[in-house]
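Appendix C: a fully annotated inverse folding record. The material below is reproduced so that readers can follow the format used throughout the book. The structure is listed first as tokens, followed by the designed sequence.
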């Protein structure tokens, strides 16, 4: 296996991660909307909050796959200073989006989750 074949394989793996990320977002959105519609018109405000929560989680998971794909493709295939700078900007934007969505879902920042979580008796024993 030569270097060109290796880079081509790595690029395919990175593209695969990105494809999975898009698929997760698309499928998760379709499933969440389908569940929302199937539940009818009862308790609409609560169901709307549940839909937003589910969509947020779906987007966060999809973004994780997209970031992984970007990292694989940029670092392994085209490690130039310009491509790494673009990758850094993309990761920064996607990380901000993930954190904002996680704040929307959980109602607290990721580093505050442990402080808000109730203590478990089995953990103290």
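Designed amino acids, in order:
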């Amino acid at each position: 296996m030569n270097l060109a074949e290796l880079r081509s394989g790595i690029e395919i793996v990175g593209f695969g991660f990105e494809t999975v990320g898009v698929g997760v977002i698309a499928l998760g959105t379709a499933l969440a909307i389908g569940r929302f519609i199937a539940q009818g018109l009862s308790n609409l405000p609560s169901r709307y909050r549940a839909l937003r929560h589910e969509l947020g989680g779906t987007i966060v998971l999809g973004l994780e796959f997209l970031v992984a794909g970007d990292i694989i493709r940029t670092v392994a295939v085209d490690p130039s200073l310009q491509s790494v700078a673009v990758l850094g900007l993309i990761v920064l934007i996607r990380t901000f989006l993930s954190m904002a969505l996680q704040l929307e879902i959980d109602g607290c920042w990721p580093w505050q989750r442990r402080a808000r979580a109730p203590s478990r008796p089995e953990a103290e024993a």
